[in-house]
Design brief:
260 residues, alpha+beta, Ribosomal Protein S8, Chain: A, domain 1, Structural Genomics Hypothetical 15.5 Kd Protein In mrcA-pckA Intergenic Region, Chain A, six-stranded antiparallel β-sheet, five-stranded antiparallel β-sheet, 14 strands, 27% helix, globular
C-alpha cells in the first residue's frame, strides 16, 4: 500500500485526515480478513473514500446510507473476495413521542443526540416524521441511544430498533425552475437557483458559503452540469437536472430543482 500516493488524492487537510483513518482501517482489514466501516460522511467524501479503498489491492468498498438517496453514508471496507459481504454497520431506530403540541425539527433531534455525547460521525440521516423520527446510526451505538435517549426538546420519547425495510422516507419537496443562462458558470446557475442577483452570489461563493457536490467552491466561474448538487449555507440545495439546448439568442436552457 503506497500510503503517501493515496493520501495525495486529498485536496484539503480534512480530506487527508479522513483518508488517513480509512487507510488505517484498510490495513486492519487486510491483516484480519474481516469487514469494517468508516464513519458517516457526505456523498463527496464517501466517493473519495470508496475510490481510495478500491485502489488498494485486496480491498473492496461499498457505500451504504440505509436508502438510495441518503445524504450521509458509511463505506464498508471488506476483502475483495467478499465484495457483497453481509456485514451490517448500520442500525435503524424509531423515535416516538407526543409532539402534537410541541413540534420539533431535525435540529432538535440532532441536538438531543449530540447531548448524549455522540459524535456526528456516528450518525447518518435523521428522517423527521409527524410523531417522531427514524434514525440511521452506526450499529455500535444503537444500544446506547435506545437506553439513553429519553427526550427530544421537552417531550419524552421512546426508542426501538426497526428494520431497514421499515424506514419511512419523507417526500422531498422541491420547486422546479426553468430558465436560461449565458453559460454554465457557478455564479450564473446559482443566481437563478436561489433567486439572487449574480453579484450577490459571487460574494457568497467567494466567502465560502456555497458548495458544489458537498465540496467548498470558491470560484464563481467554475463549471457545473447536469447531476450536480449545489448547496448554500442558509439557503438550501439546488440540483441541476438538465442543461443544454440553445435559444435563438444563444443562451442555454436549464432545468433546476430547488429543494424546500
Amino acid at each position: 500500500m503506497n500510503r503517501e500516493k493515496l493520501l495525495a488524492a486529498a485536496a484539503t487537510p480534512e480530506d487527508r485526515e479522513t483518508l488517513a483513518r480509512v487507510l488505517d482501517l484498510g490495513e486492519i482489514v487486510l491483516k484480519t480478513h474481516r469487514t469494517l466501516y468508516a464513519d458517516f460522511n457526505d456523498p463527496f467524501r464517501c466517493g473519495l473514500i470508496a475510490r481510495t479503498v478500491e485502489a488498494i489491492p485486496g480491498l473492496a468498498a461499498r457505500v451504504d446510507g440505509g436508502y438510495p438517496a441518503a445524504e450521509r453514508s458509511r463505506v464498508l471496507i471488506s476483502p475483495d473476495y467478499l465484495p457483497e459481504a453481509s456485514e451490517e454497520g448500520l442500525a435503524f431506530l424509531e423515535v416516538t413521542g407526543n409532539f402534537r403540541f410541541r413540534p420539533v425539527t431535525h435540529r432538535d433531534y440532532l441536538g438531543a443526540l449530540l447531548g448524549l455525547g455522540i459524535r456526528r460521525e456516528k450518525m447518518g440521516d435523521i428522517l423527521v416524521l409527524e410523531n417522531g423520527a427514524h434514525l440511521i446510526v452506526a450499529k455500535e451505538i444503537a444500544d446506547y441511544i435506545k437506553s439513553g435517549l429519553t427526550a427530544v426538546g421537552r417531550t419524552g420519547v421512546s426508542v426501538r430498533e426497526i428494520t431497514r425495510a421499515a424506514l419511512e422516507l419523507p417526500a422531498r419537496e422541491y420547486r422546479e425552475i426553468r430558465t436560461t443562462v449565458q453559460s454554465m458558470r457557478m455564479d450564473a446557475v446559482t443566481a437563478h437557483g436561489f433567486g439572487l442577483s449574480r453579484s450577490k452570489m459571487v460574494r457568497e461563493i467567494t466567502s465560502g458559503k456555497v458548495f458544489l457536490n458537498w465540496r467548498p467552491c470558491l470560484d464563481p466561474s467554475a463549471g457545473v452540469g447536469a447531476g450536480d448538487m449545489i448547496s448554500a449555507r442558509g439557503r438550501g440545495r439546488v440540483e441541476v437536472i438538465e442543461s443544454g439546448g440553445k435559444t435563438k439568442k444563444g443562451r442555454l436552457g436549464l432545468l433546476l430543482r430547488r429543494y424546500i
